[in-house]
Write a structure and sequence with these properties.
Layout: E1 24-28, H1 37-52, E2 56-59, H2 65-78, E3 83-88, H3 113-116, E4 118-122, H4 125-138, E5 144-147, H5 152-166, E6 173-177, H6 184-196, E7 208-210, H7 213-221
Parallel strand pairs: 1-2, 1-5, 2-3, 3-4, 5-6, 6-7
Helix pairs in contact: 1-2, 1-7
């Protein structure tokens, strides 16, 4: 049965029997498979690595492209409790696969929980990003944010979470899974921005780079916040 449409309520990351809070990985990625099969293979590899480490996944809630492949693979290995998709209502009918009967998704239909995990529908993009970040922040150590290949939305989500880290809003690790050099241009832009004086040298290493799924998750575990991270207090008036 499909997940029930909810508002903005999000269940906190689950713990094990010893009471340890499970780490959560938030993955930003495209609703397209890309031209090279390496991108879909990377999504499958990342799901397998997440399962091997006993982590939970929160992602954008789509069932097509890299998003769908990532969720499907992890649910097939770890069950639906391991995956939580969060999607804005206007995107529900655009980021779902055509059903087995050939029907396109409607605005009020949701993915099958047994295949894609739990889905939460929210009002807008800002709420989606806020709730995904909250699950990572509230999760156990070793969690963080990963960007697989994607388009404008993936880049925007990545750079916002990078900015939040720089400003001291969160201290979780951030890594790009650099498949076939996909993120080379972004990494070069960071270096150029440092050289040009728009990004401080102390903030040059906020984003870690990895080229294998295991190294991506390893980068989150070994992540150290950049020296240039602002020591600001948030949430106080």
């Amino acid at each position: 049965m499909p997940s029930e449409i909810t508002s903005e309520a999000v269940t906190a990351p689950r713990g094990d029997r010893a009471g340890t809070v499970q780490a959560t990985v938030c993955v930003f990625c495209g609703a397209s498979p890309g031209q090279s099969p390496a991108h879909m293979e990377a999504a499958r590899s990342l799901a397998k690595a997440i399962h091997a480490r006993g982590l939970r996944l929160v992602y954008g809630g789509g069932t097509i492209g890299l998003m769908g492949e990532l969720a499907r693979t992890l649910v097939s290995l770890a069950g639906p409790d391991a995956v939580h998709g969060i999607i804005p209502a206007p995107l529900v009918k655009h980021e779902q696969a055509v059903s087995s009967s050939g029907e396109k998704a409607s605005a009020d239909s949701l993915p099958d929980e047994a295949i894609y995990g739990r889905t939460t529908v929210v009002a807008d993009m800002h709420t989606r990003k806020k709730l995904m970040a909250r699950e990572v922040i509230d999760g156990g150590p070793g969690g963080g944010f990963v960007a697989l290949s994607g388009g404008y939305g993936t880049l925007e989500e990545l750079m916002e979470i990078v900015t939040w880290n720089q400003l001291g809003i969160h201290g979780r690790g951030i890594a790009v899974y650099n498949v076939e050099g996909y993120w080379d241009g972004l990494l070069k832009w960071v270096r150029d921005a440092v050289t040009a004086g728009f990004v401080g040298q102390g903030s040059a290493n906020i984003v870690a780079e990895a080229t294998t799924a295991e190294d991506v998750l390893g980068a989150l575990v070994s992540y150290r916040n950049a020296e240039g991270r602002y020591q600001l207090e948030w949430g106080r008036q």
